[in-house]
Design brief:
Blueprint: H1 3-28, E1 32-36, H2 56-62, E2 71-75, E3 78-85, E4 107-111, E5 125-128, H3 131-134, E6 141-142, H4 145-153, H5 160-185, H6 190-201, E7 213-216, E8 238-243, E9 246-247, E10 250-251, E11 254-259, H7 264-282, H8 290-308, H9 316-321, H10 324-328, E12 369-372, E13 375-377, H11 380-387, H12 397-404, E14 408-410, E15 413-417, E16 422-424
Parallel strand pairs: 1-5, 3-4, 5-6
Antiparallel strand pairs: 1-2, 2-3, 7-8, 8-11, 9-10, 12-15, 13-14, 15-16
Helix pairs in contact: 1-4, 1-5, 5-6, 7-8
């Protein structure tokens, strides 16, 4: 989509946000709302701050990541007002604000102090943001729970602008994933693969929506593996990379698993997971219970365990009922995606006992954007109890030992629910 079209959609997006916020304020009895962008706290005993990305509702309106000590005022029937913190400072540079059409909708002002602005005719005012930032604000009702819940609901159904931003975030991230695979094929270390990803996406890791997960060999079996080995592996058996990009504040969250040369058994598992993952993505549609997609993923993992010979002598339903599939696939099938990687309001009801880590328990509706990310892992702390228990005769311990050095598999796409089905934002950009 051309940039002029995207900027036009942003105006429609802001108009919809104004309507949603006015409704939320009226329902909860407020006349106006002041949103703090937030600020990075300093590390304990240090003069360096943590990296900052911004408070969700502020980004929902502005997309301005990295803007500390800014304030956005929302009122019924009036244009929002944005105060940008732009001090005269020789230590740090102020971010330049590119002129775009959204500034005809939001009035932009500049101030040199980080304190909340003085408001006139605010009426009954709510102030929302990080509590430590709001501690110095001596007016308004801070973070009222009912209103916060209503603001989270405004983010459940994405506008056309938001979906196009998410699509662009996917397209950029896929450039990084291609470069990461090439670096892996060239024998690079995890650190080298991370550098290849950053170069291709043109985004510093600190600006990314989350710390990239880059696991070679057995490291792929740690779900949120957080380290980057600097040594080239003696043998590159597998790569799992879970990495995304922020675009105008919106996140992509993509995972791919690549088998190394000569890893035929593992490659067959990856191929089977790819087929399963695509079928699960095709299940996304209005009226579908997200939990049912999760449960179908377990049925698919059971079929894959049986077909590969990892588990024998049990039917698929028994594998699920006995918890065998949960030992190989311990996490949920995915989550909401938007301004935050794990976007808000996903669990109006708690997940069931058989899916304790599921982050989304809603019925799917048009405008929702979700991830679909089945996996199959060789995690000793989960498999060892099975291999020493009543089910051990059904587990192929020699094959498990052989594949354990490959760590695991996860494949993840970002999928938007449409009026009639789904739009896979990841696959449409993958070539």
């Amino acid at each position: 989509m051309s940039n002029p079209s995207l900027l036009s959609l942003q105006l429609d997006h802001l108009d919809q946000l104004q309507q949603r916020y006015e409704s939320a304020l009226q329902t909860h009895g407020y006349d106006s709302l002041l949103i703090a962008s937030g600020a990075a706290p300093y590390r304990y005993g240090d003069d360096q701050a943590w990296h900052f990305q911004g408070y969700g509702p502020f980004l929902h309106w502005t997309g301005l990541t990295g803007r500390e000590h800014c304030w956005l005022w929302i009122r019924a029937g009036q244009n929002p007002v944005l105060w940008l913190f732009e001090p005269v400072d020789f230590w740090h540079a102020n971010l330049a604000l590119e002129q775009e059409p959204w500034q005809s909708f939001i009035e932009v002002r500049s101030q040199q102090t980080p304190e909340a602005p003085q408001l006139e005719s605010a009426g009954r005012l709510a102030v929302v943001g990080d509590p430590w930032v709001l501690a110095g604000v001596g007016f308004g009702e801070h973070n009222p729970p009912g209103l916060l819940g209503a603001l989270d609901e405004t983010r459940v159904h994405k506008t056309r602008y938001e979906i196009e931003c998410l699509a662009q975030a996917n397209a950029i991230a896929l450039d990084g994933h291609r470069s990461a695979r090439e670096a892996f094929a060239g024998g690079q270390s995890e650190f080298g693969i991370n550098l290849a990803y950053q170069r291709a996406t043109g985004q510093r890791e600190a600006e990314a929506p989350y710390h990239s997960i880059i696991g070679i060999n057995e490291h792929a079996g740690t779900l949120h593996y957080q380290h980057y080995g600097t040594r080239r592996p003696a043998r590159s058996r597998s790569l799992l990379i879970d990495a995304g990009v922020r675009y105008r504040g919106y996140c992509s969250d993509i995972t791919r698993t690549t088998p190394g040369a000569g890893q035929d058994r593992f490659a067959s598992l990856v191929h089977g997971m790819e087929l399963l993952q695509r079928r699960l993505c095709e299940q996304v549609a209005p009226g579908v219970e997200y939990l049912e997609i999760h449960r179908k993923a377990h049925q698919g993992v059971a079929a894959l365990l049986s077909a590969s010979g990892l588990v024998t002598g049990l039917d698929d339903d028994t594998m699920v009922a006995e918890g065998i599939t949960r030992a190989f696939f311990p996490h949920g099938i995915g989550h909401f995606l938007g301004i935050q990687v794990h976007d808000v309001a996903g669990k109006p009801t708690p997940p069931p006992a058989d899916a304790p880590f599921l982050r989304l328990t809603r019925t799917l509706e048009p405008g929702m954007v979700v991830t679909i990310e089945p996996g199959l892992y060789f995690i000793p702390s989960l498999l060892d109890p099975l291999m020493s228990g009543a089910m051990k005769r059904h587990l192929n311990s020699s094959l498990i030992d052989e594949l354990a050095g490959c760590g695991g598999i996860r494949i993840e796409d970002n999928v938007a629910v449409t009026d009639t089905g789904a739009r896979n934002l990841t696959r449409e950009s993958e070539v």
